[in-house]
Amino acid sequence: MSTPAYTPLLRARDLVKEFKQPGRKAFRAVDGINFELAQRETLGIVGESGSGKSTTARIVARLIDPTSGSVEFHGEDVTRRSGAALRDFRGSVQVVFQDPYSSLNPRQTVEQIISAPLRYQGRKATGGYRKVVKEAMARVGLDPDHSDRYPAQFSGGQAQRIGIARALVVRPKLVICDEAVSALDVSVQAQVLDLLRDLQREHDLSYIFIAHDLAVVRQIAHTVAVISGGRVVEQGPRDAIFDDPQHEYTKTLLSAVPRINPAWDSVRTGLGREGT
């Protein structure tokens, strides 16, 4: 009996995104990116500011359209979806943004914020939206009795948990975390990362975790793609990327990380010799 062909949850093929500027040559923010993401795994996407990480994430979530290339979800190209089919896809892929306060409507209560994806999707909630919201709040470690409060009444870590609850309420298959912990204190970062790992095991979630902090990526990612100038310059299993980087750009990123793994010292030393 033949083994069924492997189909990743998500596959990006030759993604290109150009932004047109009046009177100037189009700027290519994403330039032929390819990667795959397996079910129940986390892909870390790393690179410096302006490398194309967030633009890639927005294409995957269909917040913007690619200039060319495709995004396959369960083997189907979703860049061609529109209308109800696109709405269904967006129920399967949710985003947690960098700044928890700017991504939450300050004029809405937590109940309104968390239930918004359900309302957008036109989904009915067993027991009503309020019941579902309270369950979602409890799941991410928030007090369900605070559902009538507003975002400004919560700490940064709590506000980010609201964003996570909002993403999970439609039971997605993929959650894109775009610098989701970079605005948080280190101790709060650890709490949110633990929460994300627990939720991944509990709900069979896949993550795309975008960050410039490689120490954070190493804690949560199974595989890593390193992006520079809109291109993937290196990708592979987490430990291979961190312990034996091959591309000079990856080595440069790692050399800037505070010492966590003694093996990185050889990378730094090698870079230092080359520069003398």
Q: Describe it for me?
A:
The chain has 276 residues and is α/β, with parallel strands linked by helices. The protein has one domain (10-275): Rossmann fold (3-Layer(aba) Sandwich), CATH 3.40.50.300. 38% of the residues lie in helices and 24% in strands. The chain has 10 helices and 10 strands. The protein has helices at residues 53-60, 83-92, 110-121, 129-139, 156-168, 186-203, 214-220, 238-243, 248-255, 264-275; strands spanning 10-21, 24-37, 42-46, 68-73, 76-77, 93-96, 174-178, 206-211, 223-228, 231-237. The strands form 2 sheets. It has a 6-stranded mixed β-sheet, sandwiched between helices. A 4-stranded antiparallel β-sheet has the order 2-1-4-5, covered by helices on one side. A hairpin with a 2-residue loop joins strand 4 and strand 5 (76-77). The chain is globular and about 50 Å long. The protein starts with 9 loop residues before the first strand and ends with a helix. The relative contact order is 0.15. Mean pLDDT is 88; it is low at 264-276. Residues 10-254 form the ABC transporter domain. Keywords: ATP-binding, Nucleotide-binding, Transport. This is Peptide/nickel transport system ATP-binding protein.
